[in-house]
Fold this protein.
Amino acid sequence: DRDSRRETPLGPILLPDGDEIIFYANVSSVLDAQRAEQDHASGIGLVRTEIFYLQHDGDWKYEQQVEVYRQIVNIYSRGPVIFRLFDIGSDKKSTREIKEDNPALGYRGARLLLGEPDFLLEQVKALLHVIAEYRREHEPRDINILVPFISEPSEFFRIRDVIEAQCRTMELEVPRVGVMLEIPSAVFCMDELATRADYFSIGTNDLFQYFFALDRTDPKVSSFYDPNSQAFLRLLEMIVTATQRLNIPVEICGEIATDRAMLRHLIDLGFRTFSVNPYVINGLKRFVQREYAPVK
Ligand code: PEP
Ligand code: MG
């Protein structure tokens, strides 16, 4: 990294106009959470909870869930933490294999959670348990929940209902709950989603896959992968414009922002918060600093 001799700013990058560019970390392991802490990520923008579940071959007990969620909020001590509900199916397969011809278009994410209410409720309880415990023992911190693979509003509303009902049972203030925009249809109902979503997180890996009908796991088609394409940028522009009109926070999640040309496009479109794997955050910060806010 040719910027590596420069000092890396610890916090967000302040642009000359006063805006901040914020980098969060995507976390798929406890090690990732350590790295996020060590490299001063401004938050954890995504905990892929399903990875932990899949590592236990689908035999991940309630107590074990609680323990891992607790570990993550303790290891990473600084900013917000976003726990995504299990996004199982498609490329994130479980051993309770369901045979499907088109798993990417099949029983995955929110669909699976709604199809297995006990499974959903167990995770909601485990997350709320850790959130409640944290609130009792620490200064306020935004620890919240993100719902994956939403294609239309009623799916999100039904899952949010489950979270709210459980909060009533536990006499707990409802944490923020966000929607992943990763299926193109969801982009066309952002107004309705925003009536009950606290923020949007754009799952660019999947949004790209479903927008271009391009399997993210198939190396034969990966050479067609150009996120800098006009069509995709127009879709992202639609999203950022809608979030500004609706006055709702949005973050870009996924590896797209690690491509520097793309990161420039995204910043120029108006995106300010990016969640990427923690190992690249310092390099990206130095890049943004150099491009947008050079130190005199
Ligand atoms: C995405 O889809 O862009 C995303 C961040 O989630 P995942 O890669 O886990 O599907
Ligand atoms: Mg995704």
